[in-house]
Amino acid sequence: MTQHSESDILTALHRSQEEGFRMLAEQFQEPLYWHIRRLVVGHHDSEDVTQEAFVRIFRGLPRFKNHSSLTTWVYRIATNESLRWLRRNAGKSKELLSGEGHYPQEEYINYDDLEAIALQRAIAQLPRKQQLIFNLCYYDELDYEQVATIVGGSPSAAKANYHLAKKRIKELLLAQLNH
Known about the structure:
Layout: H1 6-15, H2 17-40, H3 43-60, H4 70-88, H5 92-98, H6 114-124, H7 128-138, H8 144-151, H9 155-177
């Protein structure tokens, strides 16, 4: 996959919206899918949410004003689309992580990787904002300022929530080990 810098993508967007969007999609397709997947859980649902996020990104390009980085703006749209899906499908993601869901498409979840499943179950038990912040910091490796812009709030609140999430995850993992 070709890596494109934000400035290259923005330059291409000014030349041609189609060319710029193609570059944007190449750059963000996989990271956004995995960001969404960690929230939505199911593979096919995550693909659908990712597609809808890219539709919203494309439609929103004329309104992008560089008030934040392109990365932050794209992740915010993907996060909002994920939250919209979660509100409409409350409980489905947690059901899949619990192993109670018997969705045929979930062959994409490796239930044999016990550590990964334990971590995902612990993350799923966090309050939604802490889930988002933990995923954005830990998996997506975004800084606290970017995370604060995506979820709303201050960098110090994002940092505090990240540390609270890590503490709670440790507690939940230890509790799982003791059972």
